[in-house]
Amino acid sequence: METNQRPLSPHLQIYRPQWTSVLSILHRITGVVLSIGTVLMVVWLVALAQGEQAYHSMIGLMSSPLALIALVGWTLALFYHLLNGIRHLLWDTGTMLELKPARASGWIVVVLAVGLTAVVWGGWL
Amino acid sequence: MKALRNPLERAINHGAAGSGVHHWWAQRFSAILLVPLTVWLLWTLSALVGADYAAARDWIASPWNASMAVLLVGSTFYHARLGMQVVIEDYVHKRVLEVALQVLVAAAALVGAIVSMVAILKVAFAG
Q1: What residue ranges do the domains of chain A occupy?
Q2: Residues 6+ apart with CB under 8 A from A102
Q3: A34: nearest CA in chain B?
Q4: First-to-last C-alpha distance (Å) of chain A
């Protein structure tokens, strides 16, 4: 097939990382993390439906230090993917595509995602 | 000089031609739905942190919250499947592995959605 000779997009290992490209790949990475994280949602709901005992042992498991680290990571991934997803939806309308607003909106997304995660886990809520 | 694009006549009715736009729209549509639903999820989580079993059950059992939970679960697994599909298409180049992963992800998303919805409805109908 001739499709093999069509131009390829640059490989990640060769193309120099830029602010916008790093945020772009982060959107995919957080998407994959959140997809795996849906297991937590299923476990929580099934434990809730099963009864008090199952619910308490599930809460116990989720309170372990390792689980808490995972939950903080999940929160950060959720906020990033949500905010950057809104950024993508704005791009889909054809706006904010120039270099300057694209970089600036990236900063807004990163600062807000880290800030909101800190608010949720810092006990300020 | 290589051709930059395949002639249209060779693209139509092959591969993503025609169906690619559907995937794009489905991903956007589920994304838009997920924005308010994620806000609902955050509100729910903040209400349920430290709450006991009865309070958590009561929360999900209310018709409004049960409906939001079913909607959230449905659009989450749909959106996750669509996203994972593109990631696998882009990075898994071994055809056998690619197809196996696509089937696995689609099945896992379906199972996850159904198991979650049954759990929500069980809590909702049992009161």
Answers
A1: 19-121
A2: A20, A91, A96
A3: B80
A4: 58
pLDDT band at A2 (very low <50, low <70, confident <90, very high): low
CB contact under 8 A, B60 and A48: yes
Higher pLDDT: B65 or A123? It is B65
Which of A13, A35, A66, A68 minimizes the C-alpha distance to B88? A35
Chain A residues touching B112 at Cβ < 8 A: 38-39, 42
B10 has pLDDT over 80: no
| Fold (topology level) of A19-121 | 3 helical TM bundles of succinate and fumarate reductases (1.20.1300)
For an interface test with A, the pick among B21, B90, B116 (most A C-beta atoms closer than 10 Å) comes out as B116
Mean local confidence (pLDDT), B76-101: 95
CB neighbour burial string for A33-64, b if at least 16 within 10 angstroms, e if fewer: bbbebbeebbbbbbbbbeeeeebeebbeeeee
CA B107 to chain CA centroid, Å, is: 12
